[in-house]
Amino acid sequence: MKTFTAILALAASTALGAAVPTPAEGSIAEPQAHNLTLVLGTDDFGEPVWRLLDENIPAHLQRRGASTAEPQPQGLVKRAAECHGNNRAYSDDCRTLANSIQYSKSPVPNSPRNIAYATCYISWSKVFSGEQSRFWAGAIDTLYDCTGGRAGDDHNYVSGVIRGYLPNGAAQCLSNRATGCS
């Protein structure tokens, strides 16, 4: 409904001759907040999972397989992730998932407690209310901490848990599995 309202407002302002704000020459426009579309499906074991599909990735992001420089969270108190050598997901899939939720205003689903893109799952240990963008900083820090050689020599894969970013003492995991985050 918010998307429809925003489009209607833009159309009305254009029809009435109102100026539509544009970025200043030479400046870079910040990505807009968005509602991320997830599809309820199942994993390889028949367990429910919220999936992000290629066609639902926000337009300002690159698709699967495109490698970009590692983004760094700004203004956060860094907490080290606990990295694991098992249940590792392809790091580019995790980077795509993390960047897709960065500005998402969509609500955190209560069940199942995971969001997936390709081989990567963001999962959490406890139910809480909030926007999906809450997962971004923990996912980026886990990517940074756990692809830097601490969990092995292979920088293309990641698995870890981070605490202190989510309410109610919930842990956040980044791995190749939908359940088991604690």
UniProtKB/TrEMBL annotation:
<keyword id="KW-0732">Signal</keyword>
<dbReference type="InterPro" id="IPR046925">
    <property type="entry name" value="WD-like_fungi"/>
</dbReference>
<feature type="domain" description="WD-like">
    <location>
        <begin position="74"/>
        <end position="181"/>
    </location>
</feature>
<dbReference type="Pfam" id="PF20493">
    <property type="entry name" value="WD-like_fungi"/>
</dbReference>
<protein>
    <recommendedName>
        <fullName>WD-like domain-containing protein</fullName>
    </recommendedName>
</protein>
<feature type="signal peptide">
    <location>
        <begin position="1"/>
        <end position="19"/>
    </location>
</feature>
